[in-house]
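Quick illustration for those who missed Monday's session on complexes.
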Amino acid sequence: MTVTNDDAARNGQETDSPYLLRADIDEAGYEPGHPIVRNVVLDVRPGERVGLIGPNGAGKSTLMKGLLGHLPHWKAKVFWRGEEENAARDNAISSKIAYIPEQPIVYERLTLWEHLVLAAASSGLSEDELNRRADRLLRRFRLNGFRHHYPVKFSKGMQQKTMLIVGFLLKPDLYLVDEPFIGLDPGAVLELIDALEEERSRGAAILMTTHVLDSAERLCDRFVLVHDGGTAASGTLEEIGRMAGLGPEARLFDCFHRLTAVDDEVEA
Ligand SMILES: Nc1ncnc2c1ncn2[C@@H]1O[C@H](COP(=O)(O)OP(=O)(O)OP(=O)(O)O)[C@@H](O)[C@H]1O
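Prediction with adenosine-5'-triphosphate bound:
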């Protein structure tokens, strides 16, 4: 089933764009001729939280890699505040984005504090600002006692918190967050939701993938559902509920199942 609100808006001729980021993606994949997803529009306004959802293997992480300029096959027009990004400028928008990957990536020989110093240096953050922001984040995510420990020896959840702290430290315009909830303890999930809400009220936008649909429903203003190599639905929960034929009160979980239902019967 394919229902989308975006078809009329695919010409990319925007002026005075309300969007912080808008990507009209023709094809995204790992080799030419084998796109993983086609014809997807991803857009996010300042202060908006958009949930990118879809079944395993639908291409959510692939789309995020494309936005970051890390994908070998990427046929897309990307607009930042209405201005088209020049593909020749590699990673042109990545300096405005904090990417929090699904699999934590930590440097083997750096302590947690050294990770923060490195991130601060690469984005021109002053020492005072680093100390002030880092102190609050380390306390918030309960890693204050681990400043001088090596994240490579942390648990998965602690490594994930390290990635979150590095991302929040930089206060970017846009957060790309790939499956933030799995692996965090319940207290950390609440802190994450609060931290994202603080960032949203500052005007930062959030594009996140997740399978934790009750948290997504609570947090996100709008959703893009990727399935079968394209956009299966996009809009607010109310709009998606209507598209799924479930009405405006529908839960995201039920919409997801309705819109991604497999036609073929599973053989016994
Ligand atoms: N480095 C790669 N090279 C080739 N194919 C890849 C690579 N990474 C992912 N894929 C393929 O791209 C498809 C989409 O993968 P992707 O990780 O984007 O899915 P996803 O929607 O994020 O899934 P999940 O919900 O399981 O995290 C899958 O078929 C996967 O096998």
